[in-house]
Amino acid sequence: MAFITLANTNKIIFKSDVKKLNLKGNVYHIPIYFFSRYEENALLAIQELLKDPEGYFSEIYQPYKAVDTYSYVYEGQQPAYHNFSCCPRLQSNYQNYEIPSYIKEKGSEAVEEFRKWFEEVKHLLDKPDIFVARLQARWGIVANPKAISRDNSGSTSIENLEIGELEQKIDCIIKEAGRFYYKSDKNKDILKKFSKYTFLAYKDEVISNNDTGFSDEEVKELLKYYDENFKKLLKKLLIEYYRIKFNPEIKMEGYLLDRLGFNPCGHCHDEDYKPGNDDNLPF
């Protein structure tokens, strides 16, 4: 049995052609009317993956293809799976660093050279003055690469909730979204037409068929607020709900992950690795 992070679970879903999925079922036991078909497909796919990984991989999944944009020090690498749920790399936060724009503009060879250099000096990151001096001496850059840190599980404050507590939070957000809908005529007019299409808030294009009586700017501002305060949080909670309900430790067969392009973790697959008795589970 192997273990992967929730972040990589989500990555599996969105490397499939979500638009073409024709999955049946409900995303939750209470009807939710403001998700688009794409959002519903993605949530249903996550359910299926957690309930029946082998069936999902054989019928729906498209192999993961790592893409290198040359924007970060660690990029273009295949995801890993773990032999033990207590592996520290499964539990650790995702750490990465942006490639300085000066280096990126020089092209892929310069980026690869910078990555090799970074590996040699990354132990100095805890000594910023020394690291910056080395950075300036080698590359003529005086600012540290911007650090990026993300929780590897894909959840933070919700990760220790029981399923009953999660249901209460989910129910509460659905009710709050409903109250916001009816809070004003403006909210109702815009959300009645566009609540399923909040992605429009992040596009520069003119909104077609905007007959709400409000400007595109007003519509996008409201949709962005609605998306960030209700829809995104609700999707995050639902994914955590599915995990706890169907596959708490996100267990999958190692041979499936091998076939799908995942690599065994170099830490916990080492023959000398011995998991500690008191190690915490990843969630």
Description:
The longest helix has 31 residues, at 216-246. Helix 2 runs parallel beside helix 10 (216-246) and helix 8 (163-181) runs antiparallel to helix 10. Residues 153-159 and 277-283 have low confidence and may be disordered. The protein folds into two domains: 2-24 and 31-68 and 155-246 and 260-264, no CATH class; 99-145, no CATH class. It is mainly alpha-helical and 283 residues long. It has helices spanning 6-14, 37-51, 53-59, 88-91, 101-104, 108-121, 128-139, 163-181, 185-194, 216-246, 254-259, and strands at residues 2-3, 80-81, 94-97, 147-150, 251-252, 263-264.
List keywords for this structure.
283 residues; mainly alpha; two-stranded antiparallel sheet; two-stranded parallel sheet; 11 helices; 6 strands; globular; disordered C terminus
